Structure formats: C-alpha cells, structure tokens
Amino acid sequence: MPALVALIAILAGVLNTVQAGANTTLNKTLGQPVLVALTVSAANALVYLAAIPFVGLGWPGTSRLAQVPWWAWLGGAMGGAYVLAMIVLAGRLGAAVFTGLTVTAGLVTSVLLDHYGWVGFAPHPAGPWRLLGCGLMIAGVALIARF
C-alpha cells in the first residue's frame, strides 16, 4: 500500500473522530439533531462539489444504472444513519467509546464481508490472525469503556 494512500486513510480516521465532536457540539448548541444532520449533509455536498475539479463528474448511461445492485443504492442512507447516530450518541458515550464501538463494529463486519465476498468485496479468508485481531479490538473497546 503506498504511503500516501495510508496517510490519507489515517487522516480520514482522524477527521471522522473530530467530526463526532464537532457535530455533537453543534447538536448541543442547536438542540435539533435532524437540523444538525441536514447541516452536515449540506456541508458534505459542498465538499463533493469542491472535489469535482480533482476527481471529475460524469453521468453514467441508463444501461450502467440498471446494472447497479439494489443494495448499492442504500449506501447514502447508511451514511445518514451513521451521522445521525454520531450526532445523538457521541456526546453521551464520549469520543473514545463511540469511536471504539463504531470502528470495532466496522472492522468485525469488514472481516465478515471479506470472508464471504459480500457486497462487492473480493473474498479474503477470515483466518485465525484476523479473528484474533477482531477479538483484540473487542477487548480493547471493553477496556476503554470500563476505564
């Protein structure tokens, strides 16, 4: 994996955690989680529009649209549910517990998705080391939540 790609992924993880605090503060101040989620979505749209000169924008033909599996259209709704959960729960749980739970749940889910090759991922067996890693993540979150 090229170093720049790993660095960008690490930066995305940092931003995701800081985002939880920013969104929680916005919710504490406004007291309206759905309004906060809509504000976050509007800010997302601005970022996507600003990225167009760098990544491009095109419209696929109808034949390509017809090839999209039904579940692939649900990604945006899943992202919206995550942001709303972040807005409502991160302040109650704290940054470490919220991030630990969501990252660990995501990691365990990804090992399962990789193992079976579900939702478009190439199969990658969940061997003993991957399962041990999942167990260590779960134990780590338990420790963080406990202390």
TrEMBL record:
Report the GO terms under cellular component.
plasma membrane
Q: Which UniProt keywords apply?
A: Membrane, Signal, Transmembrane, Transmembrane helix
Record keyword Metal-binding present: no
Question: Signal peptide location in the record?
Answer: 1-22
Concerning Pfam families, the annotation shows:
DMT_YdcZ (PF04657)
What residues form the membrane-spanning segments? 36-59, 71-90, 96-116, 128-145
Q: Which InterPro entries match?
A: YdcZ (IPR006750)
Q: What is this protein called?
A: Amidophosphoribosyltransferase
